[in-house]
Structures are given as structure tokens and as C-alpha cells.
User: Fold these one by one.
Assistant:
Number 1:
Amino acid sequence: MKPTTQTIWNRFITEHPELQARETALLAAHGKITRCFASGGKLLACGNGGSAADADHIVGELMKGFLMHRPVPHGFAAKLREAYGAAEGAALANALQGALPAISLTAHAALTSAFANDVASDMAFAQQVYGYGKPGDVLIAISTSGNSANVCKAAQVARAKGLVVIGLTGQGGGALAPLCDVCITVPERETYKVQELHLPVYHLLCAMVESEFFSA
């Protein structure tokens, strides 16, 4: 049975009562990501170190099935069968999964290393936001301290381009917080403890958004 956003939320709060106080920010982030995808936008994500891995992780949950089966639309499956025959078309359709378009800005080693070497290391994420971002897209900016220069500069460029900025930080939010439309500040300051709480936060968001767009 399809999980509802309320069911997902209730389970999250039961497992992570320390994040109950972040309900307003979490639900606001869910709403903004949902509106982005509903309007044909995409999500960008960035961070450093463990937060870079979190950016990749978020994209992985959005671009393929997370908690739900995501069959491709019947119309697209029919196009594959028409183009490649019933058997091959059906095999292609069955192997594909519904995707919510997302890009990790940490994953392009040639681009980021070249830009860092040739121009400025703290602008590599910002350059990608400038190149990929469109008004209405979402940037998830992850920094455990909230003070990562390259993440903050990405947020600055995102705001100038009309993206929605959602921050994931530790207690206080640092310099990133005022650059965000929504800043989810988990109640820890030590890096690994912040990261341990970021994981359930973005799993919650991915699960709730998935439930909005897929039926089974």
C-alpha cells in the first residue's frame, strides 16, 4: 500500500523525536521541493566531505525508486514497444524507474577540479549552479557548520538566479542560514553527529516527495 506523507511523517517523529521542533522547516522544505518537481524543475545538491556523500545520496533516492515501485508511464512504455518491438520495448520499460530530476554538484571531478585550479576553488559549486540552475529549481546546500565557503557561494548564486535554497546545517546555521529560503538546523554541533541527523532528514524529504509523485 502506498505510504501517505502523514504516515511517513509520523514514523519519522517516532524514530527521531529530537527533530520534532524542526517540523515547520521540514514541512516547508517538502512543499518547496514538491512544487519544484510539479512545475518541471530539478534539484541540485552540494556539500563537502561527508556532506558531499549526502548530496550524492539524495540524488540516488530521487532518481530511482526509494520506498516505492516507480513504473514508467504507460504512454512511454507504449512508445518503447512501438519503436523496438513488443519484447524489447517491454524489457526496456520494465527496467526503467520513474525519476525525479536531480544533480549532485559534487560528482563532476573534471569540471570541479579544472574550475578550482583555473579560477577559484570556492566557486566550483557556484559555477555549476549558474550553469544548471533555472528559476524555480531547488538547491540543497549541505554544511554541518553552515560556514563552508563554497556552499555559501553556491547559495548566493542560486538566490540571484531565482532558485529556492534549502540548507541542511548543524545548530545555529552559520553563515548559510540567512542565504536560505528554508534552513533545517539539526540540534547538534559536532560534525559526525550533525551528519547522523542529516541522514534521516533527507530520507524523510525524499520519501514524502516520492509519495507525492508515484502511485504504487
Number 2:
Amino acid sequence: MNLKELARTLGLSPTTVSRALNGYPEVSSRTREKVQAAAALHGYVPNHQAQRLATGQTKAIGHVLSLAQNDMINPIFGDFIAGAGEAYAELGYDMVVSVAREGNEEEAYRTLVARNRVDGVVLHSPTATDARIALLAELDIPFVVHGVAPGVSSPYSWLDINNFGAFERATKLLIDLGHERIALLNGPKGMSFATDRLAGFTQAMNKAELPIEPGHILHASMTEPYGFDSTTELMARPDAPTAFLSSSMMTTIGVYRALGQLGLEIGRDVSLVTHDDMLSFLPNSGDVPQFTCTRSSVRRAGHRVVEMLISQITEKTEIPMTELWEADLVLGRSTGPAPGHRP
């Protein structure tokens, strides 16, 4: 059955049926449900090429993966894409992925738009003054940023978690447990989330009038070897930390391995708080989780970012959409009083 036959069966115009199937807001919910039910009953599958010619839309969203940032092997990015993929399947969109070499991202975005391959773009891993935001605005294509670029003054759509508040709370928890020497194993310097987490950590330490040892603050890609090597080096210092804050579960596994090799028990000898993106292959679950954590699902974020972007596309709105999610602070077995501290 084609579109005209489906429309004839329903007693509606082909335009109305097409708009109902594509989620146009001017079609009433009652009509939309009627059309969708009939399409399912008769096994009607839209011709996406015909839709593209009729509507000028590609029904596809673009993602540019950076080889410089190792997006392709980043498990956090993988879970984000899994959530985004669920939304694409629900909303009838395809995902177009372009891979950009270092220094070649601008060309990748320009090519996506110039070839009319996508209706919108999801921008990943923003820096504080990310030039890609101005580029996408210049290219006049809808986009949503997963994260915030605080140095960009022009309005744009974004979704982020409150990284500042999450790490301020996590640091305060460790301070309340008597820890004064706290190490922060942060993400790459210049990334907006890492900047906010450092600021939250710093504010909590300053409020408690505790000194911050510069050598206890580290920045790097959030890998397991980074956690292992950093922890091994820090624990060999005379002013070794009694607690760690880690920006990723991957880094945390390295911290855990290093402390275990040193014969230290986490939660008793050394405390540890991590950020938990609720990765599907690395759960921090149970009635009492193994690790105390700040928690927010990156998979759910991927789903929501796509919903926001497609809403902008279908409703043709130019008003930016912004959402700031609070992360939960979940107590686990990895935190306890500082050695010698009595609560």
C-alpha cells in the first residue's frame, strides 16, 4: 500500500496523512493516532526518499566523532549513542556519523551541511569557548550541545548535568568524614565538565579552609591506566591523599586496582568517590553500591538530547532549549572516616 491508497482508505488527503506520520504539530493527536493505527494495520512503510523530496528533510541527524578525543573508543560516548539510537528508532530518524581527524572537525561539519545529509547536529564534548557552536550557528542548522560552553555568550540549545554542584557535594562528603588531603583525578583540561568539577572541588575545600595541594589535582583522558598510574604515584608521596575523587568509572577501576596492589582497603584506609554515568557494561549497583558516587545516566542524556533536537526541527522553533540535570549522590562501600578521625 502506498501513501495515496492509505489516504483514500482513511478519507484524508495524502498531505494530512504524511504530516500525521511525521509528527507535525498542526495535526491533531486524534488524527495522528488514527493514521498511525491504519498504517500499522495495512503494513504501510513510508518511502523516506519520497519524504525527503516532499518535505526537504533528510530524517537524519549528524554526529561528528573526533579521533583526537578518542570518541570512537570512549565507553561513555558509546552509551550516549545507545540512548540516542533508541530515540532515533522511536521517532523515525537515522543517524549519520562522520569521523574527523585532528584539526579537521570544521570541514566535517561543513560537509554534512553542504551535502544536505542531515536535518540537525548533536555536538559532543564542548570546551569552555567552543568555536564549533558559532560554526553551527553560521551554517544555520539546528543543533543541541551535550554539555555547556560557559565562555560562549550567544544563546544555543544544550543539556548538561550540574558538574559543579555534584563535585562540591562529593568533596564536602569527604571533608565531613575528616579527610583533608583529597586528590582529584579529573578529565582533560579545557573540557567544560572538567572545569566545572574542579571549581566545585575548589569551592568545597576553600569553604572548609583546607589547603589544596596542586600535585593532588590531575587532568587526563579518563582511562583505567590513568587511574592506576596516578594513584600509584600519589600514594608514594609523603603527603599521600587519604581520599580520591574520580571523574569516571573507568578511571576508578584503575584507582581500585592500584590501592589493592598496595594492600589498602577502600573505605577503611583510603576513601573514594567517583562519577557514575550508569554505563550498561560497568554497573555500580546493589542495595549498597561498591562505590560512593555522583550519578546521572549518560544513556538517558543521549535519548533526551535527540528528543530536544528533533522537537526543534519539527516545530521549527528558534528558541533555545536548555536543561540542567542534578546528579544524585549515592553512598556506597568506598567511603569511610579518615584514618584517625572520630566523627
